[in-house]
Amino acid sequence: MSVETTTASVEDATAPPFELPEAPLHLRLLLEAGSAIAWSEPVEILTYEPLEPSALPMFFDQRVYQGSSGRVYPIPFIERIDSTPHLRRWEAIHLENQYVRVMILPELGGRIHVAYDKTNGYDFFYRNNVIKPALVGLTGPWMSGGVEFNWPQHHRPATFLPVQSSIETHEDGSVTVWCSDHDPFTRMRGTHGVHLDGDSSTIRVDVRLHNTTSLAQTFLWWANVAARVNDDYQSFFPEDVRFVADHARRALTAFPRADRPYYGVDYQERAHQHPGADRLDFYRNIPVPTSYMVVDTEDDFFGGFDHSVGAGFVHWADRRIAPGKKQWTWGNAPFGHAWDALLTDSDGPYIELMAGVFTDNQPDFSWLQPGESKHFSQYWYPIPAIGVAHQATPDAAIHVDRDDRIQAKVAVTRQQNGLRLKLVGVDGAPVAEITTDLAPGGVWAVDFDATFDFGMSLEVLDAQGERLLVWNPVRPSAVAEEPWTATAPPAPEDVASVDELYIIGVHLLQYRHPTRSPLPYWNEALRRDPRDSRVLTAMAEVSYRSGDYDTALQFIQAAVDRVASRNANPRHADALYLLGLIEARRGNSTAAREAFAKASWDGAIAGPAGLEMVRQSARASNYSEALRDLDVLDAVAANDRRRSVLRVVALRRLGRGTSADAALSRAITEQPLNPTIRFLHDGTLSQDGRLLVDVALELAHAGETAAALEVLSSATATVPGPGGNVIPMAHYHRALLLDRLGRSDDARRERERARAADRRWCFPSGLDDRDALVAAIEADRDPVARLLLGMFLYDAGRRDAALTEWEGAIASGLHDPLLFRNAGLASYNVVRDESRARRFYESAVALDPSNARLLFELDQLSERLGESDERRIERLSSRISVVMQRDDLVVEYAELLIRTGAPNRALQLIESRFFQPWEGGEGRVLGAWDRAREALGLPLADPPASLGEGRPLYTAPVARHANGEVDYFATSLPEDLLFPRP
């Protein structure tokens, strides 16, 4: 056998990167001593800034996004990116050891932006040298490069919002950078820690997801890892992978060689013309935007390798909880190249090698129970020139050639002296064993003098004989069993059983289906069995989440009656727990406590129900009782981190300062970025207004009303921005708390301040917001509160109630363009009153004539109402400066010019503008350009780069069938964003 140990070298092929700062001197000394180091220091990066969000809430009812709902409310929606870049200083946190260098951007969702292999000079994650977002994200801007940590859905709703961050240095010489935020929808807390040991090339990400709410919530977790690609870049999955699937498993194909058409591409036909063109593991072969996800594997790793430079990376995670392995690409064709240009200046193209936890597909949501935390880790490390990995662990990776003889190449993530490689024969006996010293960045190449047989295996062991890796060859099967594919559920009336109707409804809710509601299935179930407790409980929860407590109470009382009809102590107490939540919101604390107490007999519910009772005790200043209940809960139920705040508050109120300090010390160690714990610890408050409201509400639930009022006062002084505006709501929350204290005059003044406050981007969400607004309306028929409550109700699906609030605010004399626009939207979508919708919209435009979004929506409404092209073009022509503010308005105007006999003007208009298409809405600009040229007798041509679009080579699957029915697996419905078709 022959043995060779080498160290690879990679030359940078990108444009000159932005400057990474050198570590401070005192940290360089630690680095030289073998420790990992971390420090915070800004970096200057050329940046294309997102422009100001729309002041209008986007109620995207039927938006399909990443296969699930594309709703964005309550986050303000950004619709354009500045086309002129500037140098911006970004807050950055740097991690480094002797092998790798990492940079995190806390202001951009805590993403990893740089991961650099110091042993060979290779960026093993794609380093984008500009911050150049395109309109890809859930709320608008999204950027390529590095690692985006996506939760609770794709793409991370807070991907362009800041996170809290801290650096933790450990006694063993390792470091962790923690990033944490509350998701913008349900305010669950997500925390990820990027960890680096002093002696390892592995980046470990430790994740803690905590449901801080009182209801079960759905979530997913996918880490999007970008890799810069070329014709020689190969993605690799475990060798036992035989099939990959599209989103929602709607389509399958074999892997790595596609054995059927996939995403409209006949790969087998392409391979007849160009041998090897059916290989999906090479970027060069995929001509259309394509996702594929591993269906089944027994292994824990995957990754990518660049054969042109001899370097790549591995991802590893425990497949029992982290089965997701996926590749995404824009496609190696003009369409994809256009998107590459929108997302970078000189870097790219790239692919994404995405790793999912608790999921192996998209959309594929899991549940977090009230108070539940889920903890897991993911690992990434660079690999040198071994080729694609055929087996990998966090400690080592191996590539095995076995055509005739066995040739192996091994890489490790730590210095290994006395590393052993053992070849084991088919009988289990060692065939050969050799030893070497190997460090990260080195390649151990071994040529065994043995003929390959499928019964053989290779073992990599450390000097103590501990197995670091075992490679067993996968025997190819003659006929691979075809995995299942998803099917659309039948119509409710065609479903065979109540049980299946219930399950389908849960599926639609859990997977956040964008175009189908669970309610028709559950209503059909109740038609067949009006007392089905599961369905009644589900309907009660839907009503409760929407703030309709009375309806929720009717459903849940019927469910409890059924559950307890033959057993006063039911096995499952979820209905009783929900009854307690509903009664508590209705102000019936005694009934709520009774329900919670009975629910706590169920071990699965004991924790959440017990916590609600502790909160009741704290609000009533019964802190001794609260503390006793906390001790009981710690003994009988799983840990709920929400208890930490309650325990510290109770101990302080009982004068047990030493115990309170000890509890607080434990809490700050376990949850260093918990904003309420930090406030209790040293008074630290965030500058994020929504986070301040979260802290205040948690303090109020713990009976700390004075502290809650203090924090809400700080929230009223925050600056509105892309994350929203809480100033009016902070005043309304203060008013509600002050009323409960009997300070009615102070409460009235807070409501006056709320009405006078800046309302831009104030989009209420959550039941606490709902309750504060209802209290304000009951106190003095507050028209601003009615405007804001209407937005909560409309987003919650209570459209008729929303319109009632908006019309009431208008009748009270409130003249606000947002109010009239919302009333117009509801008049069309809810009650189908077209003339009233037009009047409201025209009033909104008259109040804010320079608002291009309002003009666009009025034009879209006018089109749906059958207004003539001539009338529409007359309106737009009179406001041409406003039209020019929006791509979509320019396209509509150009289409009108074409239809009214002025295609030359349309073509000139289109070609004089730089367009920024958004994902899912591609083709509009290109289509108008083609139609203008066709009307002028010009031939079909390649579009100019200014259109921001390339011509697709293949036809994508349709979202809407010829009969008008929306496909169950639809991926885009851009025409239904705001005015769904009747």
UniProtKB/TrEMBL annotation:
Protein's UniProt keywords contain Nucleotidyltransferase: no
Residue ranges crossing the lipid bilayer per the database entry: none
Domain DUF5107: 72-383
Entries under InterPro entries matching the protein: CellSynth/LPSAsmb/PSIAsmb (IPR051012), DUF5107 (IPR033396), TPR-like_helical_dom_sf (IPR011990)
Keyword annotations from UniProtKB, A to Z: Repeat, TPR repeat
Protein name: DUF5107 domain-containing protein
Organism field: Lacisediminihabitans changchengi
Lineage: Bacteria, Bacillati, Actinomycetota, Actinomycetes, Micrococcales
